[in-house]
Amino acid sequence: MHTTENAELTVTPAALTQAELDDLKTFLGERKADWPAGIYATMERLIALYLTLINAKNKAGDLLKTLRMAMGIIPKSERGKQLLSKH
After folding, report:
1. Burial level of 41, CB count in 10 A (0-12/13-18/19+)?
2. Does residue 44 register a pLDDT over 80?
3. What is the C-alpha separation between 43 and 64, in angstroms, rounded?
4. What residues form DSSP beta bridges with 4?
């Protein structure tokens, strides 16, 4: 993981969690009057885009699991569990 540091701020790039996004939305909403309208609107769009990407990633993962089950493709880590459960 890459970390950028300066005297005042340490930034570690990583995916935001749903809780972090909710906190950010709350923070921005509480301070809407303090932000220029264009900046606030841009931040809202960025958050909406990020949420859309998270949802798409989750849906793609669910679809992949469904396809694997339908095709009978089982990850190696699951093979041992299935063998143990049959005995």
Report:
1. exposed
2. yes
3. 32
4. 11
- Are the beta carbons of 1 and 11 closer than 8 angstroms? no
Instruction: Quickly count: other Cβ atoms within 10 Å of residue 43's Cβ.
Output: 16
Which tokens in the block code for residue 7? 């005297």
* 6: Cα within 13 Å, side-chain hemisphere: 2
**Residue 13 in tokens:** 């790039």
What is the tens place of the pLDDT at every residue in 62-83? Answer: 898 888 888 888 766 665 555 5
What's the one-letter identity of residue 20? E
- In whole angstroms, what is the distance from residue 57 CA to residue 54 CA? 5
Q: Which residues contact 51 (CB under 8 A, 6 or more apart)?
A: 21
20-35 pLDDT per residue, tens: 888 999 999 999 999 9
